Amino acid sequence: MIFAPESIEASKAGRKTKTRRPVRRGDTIECHPARAATIKHDLGLLQVVAGGEKMYEAAVTVVTPGMHIDPSRCSEPDPADVQYARVRFLKAAACGTCINVELDGDEGISTCTGGKYRWKWRLGRTYAMNPPPPKGVKARMGKQAGRLLLKGIRCERVGDISDEDAMAEGVQETAHGEWYFVIKGREFIGDTAAGVFLVAWKYLYPKSDLVELVWVLEFEVCP
């Protein structure tokens, strides 16, 4: 998992315990089947419309171990064989309304490449924490700065961040009561922790807006 050098330092110091990553097309919630309908409902999937255009779509598929079943052709499998249900984002774009969704147990997020699903993040697993690799070097081949244990995953609008969560992202208070955040060598200062974080987010993701869905990953650095 790629972190800016300032974020690695803050994580090791215990000042940063959460990170937000944009929801991408094809991102898939791997959840227990009993929760699939609830998660789809909470996200407002297939119901969110903005400017006459459907902004989010999702497919829910019941999956047997090691298999991806085409939802248009699958019959109901034996419940004893069911491992996960998949809620897959077919189109990721600005979303006008969204109720927070939080994963549990050993659920997680996968992504699909060439018709095959692979885990992207999974609760209870550890992941490498890497600085951005040099140009031309793959991220997984770069220098590892440590490992982190993934403790929580939820989905929400980036603009819904609270001051408390902004502090968990590494935003700090100055001696004069202002808030500041340093990322990629640039310092951001403002009156609220959440406001400072959102200005920094816009700097990192210029095409983003406040209603964009993000994954909120909660972690702790491994000893």
Helix-strand blueprint:
Blueprint: H1 5-12, E1 18-22, E2 28-31, H2 33-43, E3 49-50, E4 53-54, E5 57-63, E6 84-91, E7 101-102, E8 108-113, E9 116-122, E10 126-129, E11 146-157, H3 163-168, E12 172-173, E13 179-183, E14 186-190, H4 193-204, E15 213-221
Antiparallel strand pairs: 1-15, 2-6, 2-8, 3-4, 5-6, 7-11, 8-9, 10-11, 11-15, 12-13, 13-14
Explain this structure to me?
The protein is of the alpha+beta class and 223 residues long. It has helices at 5-12, 33-43, 163-168, 193-204; strands at 18-22, 28-31, 49-50, 53-54, 57-63, 84-91, 101-102, 108-113, 116-122, 126-129, 146-157, 172-173, 179-183, 186-190, 213-221. The protein has one domain (5-216). It has 4 helices and 15 strands. A hairpin with a 2-residue loop joins strand 8 and strand 9. It is globular and about 50 Å long. The two termini are 17 Å apart. The model is unreliable at 45-82 and 91-99 (pLDDT under 50).
Order of helices and strands: HEEHEEEEEEEEEHEEEHE
The coarse silhouette is globular
What is the count of β-strands? 15
Which runs of at least 5 residues are low in confidence (pLDDT < 50)? 45-82, 91-99
- Distance between termini? 17 Å
Strand fraction band?
A: 35-45%
Rg for CA atoms: 19 Å
> Which class do the helix and strand fractions yield?
alpha+beta
Largest sheet: 5 strands, antiparallel
